[in-house]
Amino acid sequence: MDMLQGLQSRVSMPLLVAPAPNSEQLENIWQAALRAPDHGNLKPYRFILVEGEQQTALGELFLQRMLARKPDADETTIAKTRRMPTRAPMLILLVASPQEHPKIPLAEQLQTAACAGQNILHAAFAQGLGAVWRTGWVAKDPEIQRQLGLQESEQLLGYIYIGTPKTALRDVPVIASNDFVSHW
Question: Which one of 1.10.3720.10, 2.60.40.60, 3.40.50.300, 3.40.109.10 gives the CATH number of domain 3-51+87-167?
Answer without folding.
Answer: 3.40.109.10
